[in-house]
Amino acid sequence: MKTMTCNQLAGACDTTFHAATFEEMGGLCKIHAMDMAAKGDKAHIEKMEEMKNNYMTKPEEVQKWFSKMKQEFDALPED
Questions:
Q1: Shortest CA distance to 51 belongs to which of 6, 5, 23, 10?
Q2: What kind and span of H or E run contains 9?
Q3: How far is CA 69 from the centre of its chain?
Q4: What is the spatial distance between Cα 64 and Cα 13, in angstroms, rounded to a whole number?
Q5: Could you tell me which residues are beta bridge partners of residue 2?
Q6: Where are the alpha helices (DSSP H) in 20-58?
């Protein structure tokens, strides 16, 4: 298991997530971000809009971002 924060995953807070794989980590963060946005949390909504506008409209940018985040995850020590 490894630990990352919402901030480390380009999010808006210090909530921590624990996962065995990067894909699982991303899923946990996505659920958290969607939940916070549904609650009207402006910081999370802004980060989600930023990600959508800067990365999600260009497949090559999504892949670069995903690769960078996965490398960061892989470099983390096990809990």
A1: 10
A2: none
A3: 8
A4: 23
A5: 19
A6: 22-38, 42-51
Q: What is the pLDDT of residues 27-48, one digit of tens each?
A: 999 999 999 999 999 999 999 9
- Using only C-alpha atoms, the chain has a radius of gyration, in whole angstroms, of 12
Distance CA 57, CA 14 (A): 26
Distance CA 6, CA 28 (A): 9
Collect contacts of 25-32 with beta carbons under 8 A, ≥24 apart. 25/73, 26/69, 29/4, 32/6
- Give the chain's count of helices (H) and strands (E): 3, 2
- Per-residue pLDDT at 28: 97
